[in-house]
Amino acid sequence: MSDAGPLMEVSALERSFTLGEEEVRALRGVSFTIERGEYVALIGPSGSGKSTMMYQLGCLDTPSRGTYRLAGYDVGQLDDDELAALRNRFIGFVFQSFNLLARTTAVDNVALPLRYAGVGMRERRERAREALDRVGLGHRWDHPPDRLSGGERQRVAIARAIVTKPALLLCDEPTGNLDQKVGQEIVRLFEELNSDLKVTVVIVTHDPAMARRARRNLKLVDGSLVHDGPPLEGH
Amino acid sequence: MLEHFISALLALSANKLRAALTMLGVVIGVLAVTLLVSVGDGARAYLNNTLSGIGSNLLSVMPGRTETRGFGPPAQGLARPLTMDDAHALARQATTIRGVSPMVQGGGAVRFRNRQRDTMVLGVGPAFSDLRNMHVDTGEFVREEDITSRRRVVVLGRRVVQELFGDESPLGQSIRIAGGRFRVIGVMEPKGRSLGFDLDDLVFIPATAAMDLFGLDHISQLVTAARSKEETSAAILEIEEVLARRRNGERSFTVQSQEDLLKTFGAITGAMTMVLLAIASISLVVGGIGIMNIMLVSVRERTREIGVRRAVGATQRDILWQFLLESVVISTIGGAVGLSLGATIIFLVHRFAPDVPVVLSPWIAAVAFGSSFVTGVVSGVVPARRAARLDPVDALRYE
After folding, report:
1. Which residue of chain B comes nearest to A82, CA vs CA?
2. Spatial contact of A232 and A200, defined as CB atoms under 8 Å apart
3. Which of A220, B167, B270, B298 pairs as cysteine with A44 (C-beta 3.0–4.6 A)?
4. How far does B3 lie from chain A, in Å, by closest CA?
5. d(CA B178, CA B174)
6. How confident is residue B359, by pLDDT bands cut at 50, 70 and 90?
7. Counting Cβ atoms within 10 Å, is residue B37 exposed (0-12), middle (13-18) or buried (19+)?
8. Are B313 and A116 a contacting pair at CB < 8 A?
9. Would you say residue B71 has pLDDT above 60?
10. How much is the ipTM here?
């Protein structure tokens, strides 16, 4: 990994799927660059290809054509194990539906990525407690998800995402399952993490309010990038 | 590794009833393996003990010729019978054997005053006692001069004494055997039952007297033994040589060794154990199918979880191990439970029915545990591979 250069470089990226006989082009040659420490919202109507883009950016999927470089690594050239390692090292995911392991305490949920990073059990717990403290849930460390509120669950998920000190926080509709007030708090937390930890934040959303708070918006329509710049008014 | 093991336990404890029911198949399978093999092994040990208990390095010579040495008496009738002279010749000439005794088998009513018992009558020589580990308790066994003078004396087995004399001392008393009058010269030590045969329900008389009593001019067989285990083959050759010389080279007799008998029994009981093991394995296979089924359901239910794990950095191998370990943990715990149940049952059998020969040997425990482990691996592989090969994106999207 080189600290020089942009964190993410997407160039002429295409992703197509074959559905029966038909080829569906979900992304039709998208190019953009995201620098370290940016706070970006990826927006677009449903079916625009933003989920597909998110899986590409999250190294869960690879391009059909074109390239995506994360921290200098050409994602399209990596094998499955290398992709797993890349995700583990550089990316923290936050999902709409939290995706916490049931019947597992908050601290163990948060520690999960460290386990795949090969960190010893004691250090894992320590770092997981720190991450929980960071999102303001240190006192709830031994609660399983079903004894936490929605906002608290999302905080646990965010703690899980930052526990590996990733370069990129990739959030998929992170407030979609929360009421507005709690959603606001979560957005504020992302902003804090972005400024305090210098972590790059990419939020995939169709919530205009949330998009407006990002410094930069990327808008996809029909698999093409139609806007790259400061938040648009009135969309 | 310990950690993965703990995670597997935690995952299983999430659905205890399901885990328990899944385990039940393996529990029953391993229990069946343990018990059935114990029965088979017990039978083998019992036969071994019994056959070794009747003496060591025993050889018996029977009339008739069999090409293959096996279990069961050789074909009789066409053979030239064995005689007392054969016994004498062996006693004089053979050097690799320790003692030889003729044996004449018969049966008849043994009678003392108004009490009577039908029992087995064995005509033997003095060497019989040491060869077959059957010794007199009081009095004397059949002696050489009893043979030569065809004396009508008898040594009684314990049960016969009990039935005919009660508390009275039988020594010196006169009894009737198959109509002939015999004087009691000894009482045997109690020997108990062996292979379903009561070794105390016997009377011994001199072989010559037995021939007189039953009107025979030959003996049923010769009982002898090699000096040592190593000399067994030499002894067999020597016996064959001595007897063949007396028959102008004709080998109309068969020498059977205790070892042959042990081997034959061993083969039979071994085969029996294997058949029992095969039957028991069927239930283990059924248990394995149960595990596979539940693991497939579990993989489907936890698709999201698999997606999340993959997203945070789990490799396919991590996922594979996770599910494989769960399956192995289920089945080995099931195996351990089945094995302990089996051991408990065997212990209870020992405690309350000590006559039933069941043995829990270490290899059964190893087989039971090993087979439950293998069952876990085999039935876990397909679900675990399916889990590992899920596409992360599809897994995360799964509703």
Report:
1. B315
2. no
3. A220
4. 8
5. 13
6. confident
7. buried
8. yes
9. no
10. 0.94
